[in-house]
Amino acid sequence: MSKRKRRFAQPRWSGVAPDEMLETDFRVLETRELLRCAWHNEQNLLIQSVIGHAHEGHGIFKGRRFPNTTIDDIARALRLDPRAVRRERQDVIDGVEEYIDAVLAGGDGRYLVDSDGTPLLTMGTLALLPEMDGREVLRGFYLGGLRDDSEVRIGAEQRYGVAIGGGDSYLVHLPTMEAAGQDADRLAHEDHDAAMLIKYREEGLIVRDEGEDDDDTAYLYIRHRRGCGTSDDACIVMAGLQYGISAAVGAFLADAVDTLEKYVPVFGGLDKKLAEKIERGMPDLGVTRDDAGDMAYLCADESGEVPDSSLRHLLSVDKRFDQCAAEAHFAFVMGRPYAPLGIAHERTPNVRLYDYCVERLAAWRRRQPEQGGGRG
Question: Within 10 Å of residue 374's Cβ, how many Cβ atoms?
Fold first, then answer.
């Protein structure tokens, strides 16, 4: 007797990958990857990698692009409860916020753990790092959390004459998007100026900036303007070179929150909100939005060759050395030996990134004599 073929749900919208492909891509990643975090967090990050593959035609999709695939689609294809996946990701963010709150309340932040003693991001390495300076962790988080803000980037563009791409995420009404002939790929990669955003709101394509979604809406990135990208790897290293290892970790945490908040119960720029909480709660931290703009400039990829790792790539363990890219970045900042890893999708040698960051920071400091060689 032949085995019964399992039925998969049909996509509700055009441009959504079939369930079979989503499940297969996830299983391939799950077999191949080992991330430096707890298993449930690894699973949630791999789900997010599948959406990138579906949108860009990578992995098992092999050039076939499905730009309207959402993480809901992937969770359901894996027979997971989307609400549970969202809640688990929010729990990881909440742990970071608990650490921030503890430092703002006067704690020293020596240990990178949440209120239950669990390492932040469920990444065991963080609990084993040398004792942290909580204020410096918050400084790095502030810079990392605000460098992606559109107004901060515009300020950097005006000061340095560099076009830095930017945009924001919004709750988008999927039926209206499809009826307008748009898709998630075009929204993410084409220019959409202020007038177009107003039009999208009037037409109901943009429902609101933040809040809960429903079956007909998704939290999608809309590009405002084109320009060079910025590197998350460079932000971690630049923060560390300027202010030390604690700030490097803070910048890394901000990047992680920015990734995790793409699929949570309530959407709305949580990395920026936590940075603004730091701004209000610790006004004597010694950094401003102009400093965040400087960081955006320092991380700007003007050459088009600077690696930019996803959180998965930052945590992916190279089994030849038992080290991930984030750990190598921390080791470099601390002046310790680090493994020769290939980083980001392009597998760029990490030493090339470190040389680039040292040279770019030195050139920037020469242009900023009032910095006194940096504040770190």
Answer: 13
Rg (CA), the chain: 21
In one letter, which amino acid is 256?
A
pTM assigned to the model:
0.92
Q: Where are the domains of the chain?
A: 19-80, 87-161+230-368, 166-225
d(CA 59, CA 312): 14
Are the C-beta atoms of residues 299 and 335 closer than 8 Å to each other?
A: no
How far apart CA 339 and CA 318 sit, in angstroms, is: 9
| CB-facing half-sphere around the CA of 202: CA atoms within 13 A | 6
CA–CA distance from 131 to each of 105, 108, 134, 323 (Å)? 18, 10, 9, 20
pLDDT digits (tens, 9 = 90+) for 285-297: 999 999 999 999 9
Tokens of 116: 């239950």
Strand order in the sheet with 166-173: 206-208, 166-173, 217-225
